[in-house]
Amino acid sequence: MIYYIGSLLLIAVGLYAVLVKSNLIKIIIGLNFISSGVNLLIISVGYINNGTAPIFSRLGLNPNTMVDPIPQALTLTAIVIDASELALAVAFVVLLYRHYKTLDIKKIRSLKW
Amino acid sequence: MVGGAHPILLIAVPLFFVFLIVFFSSFFKGIVKYLPIIAFGINLIVIYQLIPEVLGKGMVISTTAGFKPPLAIDIVVDRLSLILAAIGSVLGFLVAIYNVSYIDEEPQERYYALFTLLVTGIIWMVVTGDIFNLFVAFEVTSIAAFGLVGFHRDQGAVEAGFKYLVMGSIGGGMLLVGIIMLYAATGTLNMVDLAQKSVHLTFGQKFLAYSMIFIGLGIEGALFPLNAWLPDAHPAAPSSVSAILSGIMTTAAIYALYRLTNLMFDYKQIYTILLFFGLLTLIFGEVSAYFQQDIKRMLAYSTIGQTGLFFFAFALDSANGFQGSIMQIINHSVSKALLFLVTGGMILRIGSRKIEDFAGLGRKMKFSSFFLAIGAFSLMGLPPFFGFWSKLKIIFAALQNPNFFMVASVVIILLMSVVEGAYFFKLLQNMYFGKPAENLQISEAPAGILISFTILGLILIFISVYPTPIINLTHQVANDLMSKSYINIALRLGGL
Amino acid sequence: MVIDKIFFTIITPIFAFAVGLSFMMIKLKVSARIERRYGPPIIQPIYNILKLLLKEENISHGVIFSLGPVIALAGSILTVLFIPYAGIKLFTGSGDLIALMYIMVIGSLGMALGAGESANPNASIGISRALTLMLGYDLPFVIIIISVVLYYHTTNLADIVAAQAHGHWTLWSLPLSAIVGFVVAYGALGEHPFDIITAPHEVATGPMVEYGGKHLGFLVINHAFHIYIEIALFVDLFLGGATNVLWFYVKMFAVFFIMMLFDEVYPRFKIDDAVRFFWKWPTIVALISLIIVLVK
Amino acid sequence: MNASLELLLATPFIGGLLAFIGGKVHRWIRNLIAIIFSFATAFEIIGYYNVTIKGIVWGKLFGSDLILQTNPITWLFLFIVTSASFLIVLFSIDDMRKEEDELKLDAYYMYLLFVEGAMVGIVLAGDLITFFMFWEIMSWTSYFLIIHGGKRSMAAGYKYIIMSVIGAYAMFLAMAMLYAKAHSLVYTDVANVLLHSSPAFVIWTIVLLAIGFFVKAAVMPLHTWLPDAHSEAPSPVSPLLSGVLIKMGAYGLFVVLYGLISVKLAGSLMPSVFSTPLLLYIIQWLAALSIVLATFLAIMQEDAKRLLAYSSISQIGYVVLGIATGTSLGVAGGLFHALNHAIFKGLLFLVVGAVIYRTGTRNLSELGGLIKKMPFSFVALLLGIIALAGVPPLNGFVSKWMIYEALLQKKEVFLLIMAFVGSTGAFLYVYRLVHSIFLGQLPKKYENVKDVPILMQIPIWVLALLTIVLGIMPGLAMNVIVKGMAFFGFKPIAYNLFGFPQGTAMGALTTINISAGLAIAFVVAWILFILFPKSRKVSQYDNYAAGQVVTEDLKYNYSYGFYMSFSRVIKPILKWSIERVYNYWVEAAKIFGDYYMRRIYTGNLETYNAYIVIVITLAAAFVLLGGKIW
Q1: CB 3.0–4.6 Å: which of B460, C118, C196, D218 could bond D223 by disulfide?
Q2: Are B473 and B37 in contact (CB under 8 A)?
Q3: Domain annotation for chain A: domains and CATH numbers
């Protein structure tokens, strides 16, 4: 349960950052918060207290106590995606700074209406 | 598979070509610009092979990695997916031709790689039968799109790209949350399996998951108020990319929403909410478009409006509504892509995106103007163009059970059509009869551009004057959606 | 029968002309007496016409200029044939009251065309005023026509006359309409206070400014017809026509005599005032009369 | 037989495309193709004279048949459309030659034939989908014709297309509502369904459809596009618009009022006024208001084409007024007036076009005295204005007479008064037209003007001849109209070749007697006239000028503000302009839209993110409420 709450909190913090912070870097951090929260959520879906790894390396392991492997696979994929997004975002920030000489999102408003 | 039609090839081949592009870029750069043409050419062949089978059996499934569904990721092509995949491939192919003349900015290999990835992701989104796979395809598409929007790397492009990225990422996160909720509740990711297992869920549970998915796909699918990135991103991107973004990417996201709504969240209440979203999107899109001075921005807002229209039709939750919606999607994809391609060529020649600078182009760029007019007519829904048939269907569907709300909605739709007519006629009038700037010396668009939009325009003319096959096909699709035959056929064909 | 028709077709315009001419003659004398003058000899109008017609020196501004008076006269002759008088109804079966209303216009059209070609602004101004005035008196005119027609349930003028036999004149049954009809007929004749069209000291007789010689002579003849048409129509509509020529003449003379009195005592209306006048009191009265007919 | 209805429909469209392609080869090939195909269309309809075809299916859409049909009323309108188009193509050949851009000309002929084809389609349509489809095609093709005229025509065309689209969508709404009920839009099915529908539904249907028709037919208060569009369009297009295109609105109204519902049905649904169903009575009032107000406006115009445009509004008012009476005589009169108006208004616009062709201006106060230079045009114009003013013996008189009589029979006196006043007013503005163009002083700069080329004269003379023929022999048109109206369930009216016997109306009419009498009277007067001494021709400068000498450089002409004093009288009425009201609301909507849309797409990423968060919050709120909202 604590994991769920934790993940939701992470997402909420991320959303807060994205919504309120005006620094580009902080927004990116906020995005990362969101993705971390989501990842945590995925993991916690498959998590079982005192579970074992879902690998039949030893005999006698109870399949019921095994952690669900699928979420872990999903998380890995999601992390890769997040990483690439993050890289792209940082690249954008660099370019933005070159054009606008600022990191304040409130001043980057050439496109509107 | 029978007949050698492998839907997985739709994704695998272009992905392979993405690697080829990156591979060749280091030592054989000249070939890079032609690789996407080959990739989507092969895709077209695959689609062509798929057509008889999909139309005959209703669905073609191919599984991956030797697992069996629901564990494995399967690629499912039913009639609806086929329509969208076909549009995607055709647009991908034509825009690939277009690129040859259009893109001269370095680094080209990145552009071509991202472009191929974008179209692949879109096709991927519409053919996947696995909900997490959908997310992956969604993110592939998004990231490629982020990159392409910022491709010009000038002030506007970077800003638009960044905004799009932030909103897209949030959307991706929300989509994933929704997917995980579904997984947590049912323990499966396969759509067919989900559809069956989710029957036991309560409405509240479903609604929570649905709202998350809706936000994720809604951001990508340009539903109001989640669409604020779109009017920035579409104009900022190169016109070739805008054509893809407007023509098929938002549509693909909407497709995913259709599919999931239809399979798992088939509640009257949800449809009612969607109805409002459709109407709001329509109103805000069309009204905003009217005030634009920048042609690409106008077209982008128009995309929002069109999205609202076909989303509204879908939310009618009736066979006629579905049919109208899909017809409108076809119309929108072809016409709007055509418009973006043509305006891309024009912008290339006159070097401005301002509508008033288009004055007198009707004389200088005859073909371009002609196809621009045809695309605009079809979007406005003037007969005898295809948009007329689809609009007719949508309005008829909306008034199937006339009550006050529906009549009011139809009045709004028609009013917005008037607004749409107002800005398109303003554009056309200016283009054909406006006074050109002093000694405006421009020639027709370059060959690649000309070829690609001519083909697209001819396709549009063809389906306009001979709409029967498409009407029949969409009728079948609508029946498929109504009867949820997706589940049944998939079960029969071993999709589960 | 056919011989009869042909005979009357020939004789009717001559009769009409004679009546109109006689009124013109009488008018000169009567107005002179009202103004305490002796006045010209009673046959002065005939002298005038003959003088004009026989003048050797005629000038013309073009074909239509010459044709104008001819068309005007042709229109008047045609109109005369449609108005039943003293039991003689020639063309009345071929065109009813409504047709008659528009046949009457042919003459004005010819006049207007001819005057137009004279390329004199005075003429143009005169026509502008004439047409405006026509629109002015047309409104009460059509209203009374409608009242009369609805009262008798026919648009055939001969039938209307027949229905008024034995003293059941429209004047008694629809007095308001009759009054308005009188005003309208008076306005149509262009006498004081509605003589702004010709207004000799302003626009030098308006439409006629360039006309002289036989052209003017034709116009004077036409004026005689015009007097006949307006008054005969009034007599037919409101005074029950007549069974013999003499009685018809007497009725017409009575109407004309009252008109002459008005002519002498009124000043001149400005054209827009004239239109306002017609659209105000005559229209209101005519409408009241119409509503009475409708309610009945 | 069946295939040939489709052929008839296809001919102009094929011709248009071929003309466009042919124009790439040589302009004469294009012209020839345009002439041949428009003639072929006009020729093909001969085979359908008095033919009734109940309906052939030419396609299927969404389970509803698409049907073509024909009957004598259809034939009447087909005749108007095809013959007018043919004449206009003929006229265009020379008139449009001044346009140097060949591409524009290719497009011009293409659109001209397309408009013709679309109108043929509208008339032949046997179901509402076909009708609406061709209606829309007509709208946008004619829009392209209008904006051929240059810069000012663009604004006019824009107004035209927007109003057309609004009208068309009102129709669309009605259609969709009917489709929901009937699941088919074939006229007969729709009529059946309407027979069993609630009064409110029927009334809404009529109102919505009527809005569409009224925009096209320019019935007040939906007329505001017409004066601009008709006057700014190229000369040959104006007669097409005024003579033919606005008749489509009248045709539509006729089909809806008598094909889809009947007067009896309408009467059973709503109260009647003067034995007319209320809705029809309101339509009649709108028509009558159009007649009077448009006439007053026409009187005050200074621009020849604008004058004729306003006149079109007023004349179409007679058509609608007649059609909406619901009696045999009135409807026949309305339909006949539609034909007559096509003839004389086409004639007038063509003559004015010819004048513009030679002088380059349509400003009435700059013209004058052209009678000496363009005598043929003058005679044609004279016939046109006599017909328009409804003066015997030409055709306009007969149809107006029928309408008056029909109104008299129904005792609709107030409408009748307005109709009469409109007709008298028409006399004012048509005289203005002939006076300012052909009479009066000839300006020096037009010394060398000639009559127009023969190819432009042919259409003018054909139409001029028709005004006379139909004026003397209205029975020719009545043959078609009465037979066609029987098809729509009207009692036939008695008529003969030369008019109407007593009993049809409250009076009788024999046109031949009137015209013969006029001819004889004219001959008599003419003989009298030439008996007297010959006259001597003098120049236009040999004038009475109160002692002054008129010279060439002096504008000795009264043509500007011809009815100034009258306009003083009606100024209080014309203070109200519906167009200003529309403009006000459109501007208000624009400002409103601009203001609020700007505040939504602010360009600020935080705002955009806030939208997302708001949606998330809303969704969460919904879930927390547990879906209890339902």
Answers
A1: D218
A2: no
A3: 2-50+64-107 (1.10.287.3510)
Domain definitions of chain D by residue range: 271-533+555-562, 602-630
Nearest to D130 by CA among D73, D59, D48: D59
Task: State the DSSP H helix or E strand holding residue B341, giving kind and residue range, or none if neither.
Answer: helix B319-350
Contact B253, B175 (CB under 8 A): no
How far apart are alpha carbons D484 and D344 in whole angstroms? 23
> Residues 14-33, chain A: which have Cβ within 8 Å of D?
15, 18-20, 22, 27
| C10 to chain D, closest Cα gap in Å | 10
Select the residue of B162, B287, B399 nearest D176 (Cβ to Cβ).
Answer: B399
C with B: 3 or more CB pairs under 8 Å?
no
Three-state DSSP at D55 gives: strand
The domain tally of chain C equals 1
**Domain of C258?**
2-295
Token readout for D97 is 């030659």
> By CA distance, what is B133's nearest residue in A?
A74
Chain C nearest-CA distance from D155, in A, is: 34
Q: Which chains touch D (3 or more CB pairs under 8 A)?
A: A, B, C
Per-residue model confidence as pLDDT tens for chain B (496 residues):
444 567 888 888 888 888 888 888 878 777 888 888 888 888 888 888 888 888 888 788 877 666 666 667 788 888 888 899 899 999 989 988 888 888 777 777 788 888 888 999 999 888 888 888 889 999 999 989 988 888 888 888 888 888 888 888 888 888 888 888 888 888 888 888 888 888 888 777 788 888 888 888 888 888 888 888 888 888 888 888 888 888 888 899 989 888 888 888 888 888 888 888 889 899 888 888 888 888 888 898 899 999 999 889 888 888 888 899 999 999 999 999 999 988 888 888 888 888 888 887 777 787 888 888 889 989 888 888 888 888 888 888 888 877 888 888 888 888 888 888 888 888 888 887 777 766 667 777 788 888 888 898 999 999 888 888 888 888 888 888 888 888 888 777 765 5
Separation between Cα atoms, residue D39 and residue D12, nearest integer Å: 10
| Residue in B229, B410, B426 closest to D176 by CB | B410
Chain A contact present for B158, CB below 8 A: yes
A-chain residue closest to B297, CA distance: A113
Complex prediction ipTM: 0.85
C277: which 2 tokens? 């006048």
Give me the residue spans of the domains in chain B.
Answer: 267-465
Output the pTM of the full model. Answer: 0.88
